[in-house]
Amino acid sequence: MKKLSFSKVMLWFGLLFLYAPMFILVIYSFNESKLVTVWGGFSPKWYAELFKDEQILDAVWVSLRIAFYSATMAVIIGTMAAFVMTRFRRSWAKLTLSNMITAPLVMPEVITGLSLLLLFVQMADTFGWPAERGMLTVWIAHSTFCAAYVAVVVSSRLRELDQSIEEAAMDLGATPLKTFFLITVPMISPALIAGWLLSFSLSLDDLVIASFASGPGSTTLPMVVFSSVRLGVSPKINALATIIILAVSLVAFLSWYFTRRAERKMKQAME
């Protein structure tokens, strides 16, 4: 019988520490009792109650739309910033841009949310836009801080690329724009997908910044969950969390599968 090494023990301990609460949450989502800490028997009734709660369903739809638009915009902005950070020659402007891009990574969310709130209020007083805070302001706020994460992920991928392939394409007559979309983008597509998924998760999970940037009619799911938890945890929240865990796990598995298959095809083509 093989002895367990210290590293394996710590690995299993870490996995247990991370995922045991999720398994407990999934089990208690089928609890018959209204008290989430008291097991009253197996029942899926809270899932039926969840789909009858219009407030939660509306918040889910709002959060999904904001997360999708924010992740898409963050990938566009973050990719452009990453390209400037890695391909332009060193200068004070490039250094300033790099520092500004990475600032949201270390900035407390309370400071970021308050700054954006003051910005929106000042813009409304000066230009009359935005007239009120809602989905648009939340989308702008989420795109702002998610773009920083995308820039870091994509820039690390760009630094690993062999620029001779891009130079060869331009030597054969391709324009820089055509080279970027036909050569560079396919090679960094795994980083783009990872950045999009990371941004989607961050936007869907955000509470602090959304609380500052949102208004009437744009309540996100974390805000609804947080407000309901303050009054007492409902078993419907456990059911909702279980559905989110299953959905995220499925998306993560499919993304890993298609990315792995694309990398294998690229390696076979290069060989």
How is the topology of this model organized?
Elements (H helix, E strand, L loop, with lengths): L5 H23 L16 H6 L3 H34 L4 H15 L2 H19 L7 H26 L2 H9 L4 H12 L1 H17 L2 H6 L7 H10 L4 H36 L1
Q: What this model shows, in words?
A:
The protein is mainly alpha-helical. The protein has helices at 6-28, 45-50, 54-87, 92-106, 109-127, 135-160, 163-171, 176-187, 189-205, 208-213, 221-230, 235-270. Helix 7 (163-171) packs antiparallel against helix 8. It is globular and about 70 Å long.
Instruction: Find the count of extended strands (DSSP E, 2+ residues).
Output: 0
Task: List the helices and strands in order.
Answer: HHHHHHHHHHHH
**Strand composition percent:** under 5%
Shape: globular
Mean of the pLDDT scores?
Answer: 86
Q: Give the count of helical stretches.
A: 12
Largest sheet: none
- The low-confidence parts are none
Rg on CA atoms, Å: 23 Å
Distance between the termini: 42 Å
Structural class: mainly alpha
Helix fraction?
over 70%
Organism: Shewanella gaetbuli
Transmembrane segments: 9-30, 66-84, 105-124, 136-158, 179-198, 237-258
Protein name: ABC transporter permease subunit
Domain ABC transmembrane type-1: 60-255
